[in-house]
Amino acid sequence: MLEQAIGALDEKHKLDDETLKRARENMKNAKGAGRELAVALSALGKSDHAAENLWAGVWLISRLDAMAFWREDDDGSIEDLQAMDARTFYENVYYATKARVDFPWGRECKDEDFLQQVLSPRGTGEPLQRWRRHFFTALAPELKDLTKDDANRAIELARGATYDFFQYYGDTTWEDFGMLTALAVHEGRCEDCSNVENCMLRAAGLPAAQAFTPWWGRGNGNHAWTVIPSIDGGKNGNGGKAVKVYLKTWDKLEDITAANTEVVEVAVELDEGVTGEKAGLNVWNAEEWRLVARSKIEGRNVVFKDVGRRLPFVLLVTAENSTDRLLTITDGNIRFLDNSPYKDPGDAAFTVELEKSCDLGEFEPDEEYTVFVQTVDGWEEIESERLSTGGLSFSCDPQRLYNVEGAGINARPFTAAPGEDGPAITRY
Questions:
Q1: Same domain, 387 and 423
Q2: Which residue, 193, 194, 189, is CA-closest to 210?
Q3: Is 239 inside any structural domain?
Q4: Are 70 and 130 part of one and the same domain?
Q5: Which pLDDT belongs to residue 333?
Q6: Per-position b or e across 397-415, b if 16+ CB within 10 A of its CB
Q7: Confidence (pTM)
Q8: Mean pLDDT of the chain
Q9: % of the chain beyond a pLDDT of 70
Q10: pLDDT below 70 — which residues of the chain?
């Protein structure tokens, strides 16, 4: 059936050799699900717009190995290549093509955008469910009289339909909700919100995609949201405060940081004898250094392009057999910090006297507080003293990164420098 489908593709609906190779390999590896895919292809070949449906169906088979329901720690994860049934596959392809043919903005959609975004049977890693026909038939009556100039109105209607029944609620299961489950539970994490919004937009023939930052650079956690790159350029206000922003496709992660925020290039020289192909760029998040980007090492040098610079950030560059490089970005200016093993405060040290209420928070009278300095060996505790005013004092090197832990204090890293009215503190 796959070969018949490929043979039925006309000049307008050609697929590249790599896609055809992947489709053939996936069909062999699908095992029992291969029979389901064959049944779906047979039905698509007998449907309206058969050429478009077979073209989309063969392409989708070529990417099924990249699609799955991902469970925590991968225990029990299920690949779509093994789980796809004929009806789900058929409806997904048929109604994706129908949206492209029926709606004028769909007919304007480029092939690549349609294949990667509109055709996708899932948002990200949620359970595979048969949502496409339900979403399409709910939206179609509202969209049928719109023209190609009304694409923004179609977007508003699809987004409105999403958030009429679904809302953000962060304290839910780690696993994503399937689209039909979302109709029942009505709430989920940011990725669930984006998944539902993406699928609703795709049901309307709009090439929606998930953008995300892997980890925030000035706080804990991460975030995901929806963009429509062919219409909004991939820009969204959520990305303005990120160090890195990516767009998900089924072939790669596309770096779209520069479309969302002001950026700077970070160039770092590593140690002699550094090994490994790539170096990592990390942010401080949830009490760990978290990876947000990798870049190829050339000799001893590595360059990270398009790093967000709108807010003050502290970054750690790591590579095999090289000392970690610690740096800050403030107002677009890059400054390397000292993170060598800690011996003493250094010649440039000055005394920091933090008031009871300061930029870091408020010190409580009966609580204990600890000051740490960042070194190549991690955070190291240093001497500090409680003041009679209720604050805290310690000897500070302007070239080092510090952290204070204790009740009432925002335990974010900071640097400090002498100021006319007390220490000038920059939190990251």
A1: yes
A2: 194
A3: no
A4: yes
A5: 97
A6: bbbbbbbbebeebeebbbb
A7: 0.94
A8: 96
A9: 100
A10: 174
Measured between alpha carbons, how far is 413 from 428 in angstroms, rounded to an integer?
Answer: 6
Which residue range forms the structural domain that includes residue 188? Answer: 2-207
What percent of the chain lies above the pLDDT cut of 90?
93
Instruction: Using the 3D structure, point to which of 207, 231, 246 is the last residue of a domain.
Output: 207
d(CA 268, CA 262): 20
In a domain, residue 140? The reply is yes
d(CA 243, CA 312): 10
Read off the amino acid at residue 263: V
- pLDDT for 75: 80
Helix H, strand E, coil C: the string for the chain is: CHHHHHHCCCHHHCCCHHHHHHHHHHHHHCCHHHHHHHHHHHHHHCCCCHHHHHHHHHHHHHHHHHCEECCHHHCCCEEHHHHCCHHHHHHHHHHHHHHHHHCHHHHCCCHHHHHHHHCCCCCCCCCCCCCHHHHHHHHHHHHCCCCHHHHHHHHHHHHHHHHHHCEECCCCCCCCCCHHHHHHHCEECHHHHHHHHHHHHHHCCCCCEEEEECCCCCCCCCEEEEECHHHHCCCCHHHHHCCCCEEECCCCEEECHHHHCCEEEEEEECCCCCEEEEEEEEEEECCEEEEEEEEEEECCEEEEEEEECCCCEEEEEEEECEEEEEEEEECCEEEEECCCCCCCCCCCCEEEEECCEECCEECCCCCCCEEEEEECCEEEEECCEECCCCCEEEEECCCCCEEEECCCECCCCEEEECCCCCCEEEEC
Give the C-alpha separation, 53 to 94, whole Å.
Answer: 6
Question: Which residues, including other chains, have CB under 8 Å from residue 112's CB and lie 6 or more apart?
Answer: none
Query: Which pLDDT score, from 0 to 100, does residue 338 have?
Result: 97
The 10 Å Cβ neighbour count of residue 380 is 13
Question: What is the per-residue pLDDT for 20?
Answer: 98
- 413 in Cβ contact with 427 (< 8 Å): yes
Using alpha carbons, list the distances in angstroms from residue 208 to 203, 213, 228, 247: 10, 17, 5, 10
Query: Can you give the pLDDT at residue 72?
Result: 75
- pLDDT for the residue 229: 96
CATH number of the domain to which 361 belongs: 2.60.40
